[in-house]
Amino acid sequence: LPGVQGLYKVIGGKENSIWADQRGHLGPGFARLEGYVFYATLYGKSPELISTPIKFKKPSSFQSDELDGVFREIAWKAVAEHPFSGVTDKNGNGIGDHQE
Questions:
Q1: In whole angstroms, how far apart are CA 10 and each of 1, 16, 34?
Q2: pLDDT tens by residue, the chain, 100 residues
Q3: Is residue 29 within 8 Å of residue 63, measured between CB atoms?
Q4: How far is CA 56 from CA 1, 32, 68, in A?
Q5: Which of 24, 32, 50, 68 is the most exposed place for a label (fewest CB within 10 A)?
Q6: How far apart are CA 47 and CA 38, in angstroms?
Q7: Which of helix, strand or coil describes residue 43?
């Protein structure tokens, strides 16, 4: 992942780590990924289809457009491919089949 330096901040001491602690709390900047997962699940659309820029309250120091795009892709794949999400995208257009 572009800009990510480590897995656990508390173990490796790297600020830009995926996990802030060993209890499963996401590190700084990763709340975007969590938000995109909620968006994909609730609206049945890929966050990759959001065309207007999103103004985040606390921009992350290592967040880039490239990493943001990766987060959007990961979120959609996680939701659309998980059998319990209730969202499928058989034609791969980024819109849940239940919306078409």
A1: 19, 11, 21
A2: 777 778 777 777 777 777 778 888 888 778 889 999 999 999 999 999 999 888 877 666 667 888 889 999 999 999 999 999 999 999 999 999 999 8
A3: yes
A4: 20, 9, 12
A5: 24
A6: 10
A7: helix
